[in-house]
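Postdoc handover notes: sequence design on the structure in folder B. Input tokens:
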């Protein structure tokens, strides 16, 4: 990290390994060691989660299940049991709470923990992460991967480094080298389209990203440029916020070629809607406000929103209302071509409060 005068924190990111599929395999021994997909069937539907055995064949979450079956004919489809996943998630949460109250869940299967000052007065964040992993295994039968570092950004990347059942420490002295060697597509927040744009500009890893000034990055990537400038230098002051309220969930896609025909637009929306639905399920969030985002080939952008009396809680509801919003847009607008579509759900059921905006960084000993 560039600013050595800053006090540091101990942040752990815990990410369960193939959570939904692992719960199914753990509860049903007949599924262990076999390729499992949670959700969908051979003919229709979407994969909510895939076991590591299925991932070896290229099966991924949010993939149409018919495609998953073509990739892996031996795959076993099981019906999602979200109440069971929530039950196990609460068991894991109770383990976290025995170490710290500074817990920021991102979904049912992952969370940030600030253990700078912890309930067991343990000096080592690495030993805490090991203990948490061992308790999760003992109490649930499941494995988790953990990343440990000085901030949320690096800890999250680190947790993905040695999956499954991984443990990766990026201590203060290793932050600079870790980020400089990191491939640009591995930076959390850099999607496929942005990664390709960066590569076209000669930015292939953290070291080449670091060579760019903040002004140049903002000129090419807007406000996100300032974020990239800071994170590649190890600067991420976001607190682990136990009162964090997620305000929206969505997905979008930028197309290789402009779309003009209504049929093409709806086909493109199908996969986006599947992704949004899967993310809502994972986070156990259901929104009453649906927003459709459309960016045209001339970079003009419009959004259309509709709020409903009840949360949209099924894939069919989300798809039906998304297409309804699309149908109410003047067809003439599409003649220029559409380069991006996005779908977002917000106004979640039981939503309250605002995001905390302040945090404190403390001293540590890794």
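Designed sequence:
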């Amino acid at each position: 990290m560039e600013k050595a005068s800053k006090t540091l924190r101990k942040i752990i990111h815990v990410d369960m390994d193939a959570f939904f599929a692992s719960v199914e395999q753990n509860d049903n021994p007949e599924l262990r060691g076999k390729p499992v997909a949670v959700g969908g069937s051979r003919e229709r539907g979407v994969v909510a989660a895939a076991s590591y055995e299925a991932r070896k064949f290229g099966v991924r979450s949010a993939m149409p299940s018919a495609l998953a079956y073509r990739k892996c004919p031996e795959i076993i489809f099981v019906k999602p049991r979200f109440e069971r996943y929530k039950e196990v998630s609460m068991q894991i949460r109770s383990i976290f709470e025995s170490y710290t109250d500074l817990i920021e869940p991102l979904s049912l299967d992952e969370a940030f923990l600030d253990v700078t000052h912890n309930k067991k007065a343990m000096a080592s964040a690495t030993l805490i992460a090991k203990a948490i992993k061992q308790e999760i295994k003992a109490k649930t039968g499941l494995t988790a991967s953990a990343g440990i570092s000085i901030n949320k950004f690096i800890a999250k990347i680190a947790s993905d480094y040695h999956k499954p059942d991984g443990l990766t420490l990026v201590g203060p002295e290793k932050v600079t080298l870790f980020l400089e060697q990191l491939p640009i597509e591995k930076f959390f927040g850099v999607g496929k389209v942005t990664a390709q744009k960066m590569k076209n500009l000669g930015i292939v890893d953290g070291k080449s990203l670091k060579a760019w000034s903040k002004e140049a990055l903002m000129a090419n990537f807007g406000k996100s440029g300032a974020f990239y400038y800071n994170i590649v230098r190890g600067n991420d002051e976001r607190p682990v916020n136990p009162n964090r309220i997620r305000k929206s969930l969505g997905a979008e896609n930028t197309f290789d070629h402009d779309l003009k025909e209504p049929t093409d637009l709806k086909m493109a929306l199908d996969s986006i809607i599947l992704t949004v639905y899967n993310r809502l399920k994972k986070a156990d969030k259901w929104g009453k406000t649906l927003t459709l985002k459309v960016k045209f080939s001339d970079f003009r952008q419009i959004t259309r929103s509709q709020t409903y009396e009840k949360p949209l809680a099924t894939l069919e509801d989300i798809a039906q209302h998304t297409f309804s919003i699309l149908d109410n847009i003047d067809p003439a607008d599409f003649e220029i071509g559409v380069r991006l579509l996005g779908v977002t759900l917000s106004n979640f059921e039981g939503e309250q409060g605002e995001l905390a905006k302040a945090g404190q960084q403390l001293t540590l000993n890794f």
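Context for whoever picks this up: The CA atoms of residues 255 and 339 lie 5 Å apart. Don't rerun without checking with the PI first.
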